[in-house]
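Ticket #4471: structure output looks truncated?

Reporter: J.K.
Steps to reproduce: submitted the chain below (284 residues) through the standard prediction queue, then opened the result file.
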Amino acid sequence: MSPRPAKPRLARWLLAGLLLLPLAAGRAQETAPADPASLVLPSAAAAPGAVAPGANGAAAGPWRLAVNLEGAEQTGQVNVGLQIVIVMTLLTLAPSLLMMMTSFTRIVIVLGFVRTALGVPSAPANQIIVGLSLFLTLFVMGPVFDRVYAEGAQPYFEGKLKSSEALDAASKPLREFMLKQTRTRDLEFFLQLGRFAPTKVEDLPLRVVVPAFVISELQTAFQMGFLIFLPFLVIDLLVSSILMSLGMMMMPPAIVSLPFKLLLFVLVDGWHLVVQSLVASFHP
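Returned output as attached by the reporter:
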């Protein structure tokens, strides 16, 4: 028999040596004598959780997040944590506050009545109606917002007023605006519902003023919508009677009257009159 070749056997030996080499190096490192300079005495060993000094002498440790609620030690001040909660709550309730405590309710309802009276439910679109109502609200409420900032926000930022005092000062212009637009009978209605004692107007709580203001705004908006509907209703009646007299029973009166209503609205500059009436209704 011929001898087995030595090359495969040599290759297996080399492979086994390469695999055993790291193990041998690790074993030698474990059994090697330790360097005296590298030994740490038990008294000098770092305690668990201690921070080792860095290269420049400063303590180098893991980064930590510290939340500090400042202002809690000051009398009459709300600490930062509660201020953040209050601000987040106000941002959540901002749409409701905008609709319930400003002129937005009356404006958006009246503009919706104008669109319905014209007979074009999709023109202008809802986004345009809401956007126009929002900017008209900012225009009408501009002086009120200026007073809110000047009497409440600015003194608070300058440190002249405490948080509770600033809140009371900022609510006075809004209260005055709402009371000016609110009917007396609506205020009396909610005072009776809440079983309040006879109260002066300037001492009424906001939980009475706000719902009374909203009810008054709805009443005023529907009254203005009724007046807007009248001329367009007359046009619809005239067109319907003319079509009936001509025997055109199958012709829808709304389709025939729509061009005439649009023509009337354009000739009298309807948007100008509507916006002027809305703005003037808040400044009698």
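Triage note (M.O.): checked the attachment and the full token line is present. The chain has ten helices and no strands.
Status: closed, working as intended.
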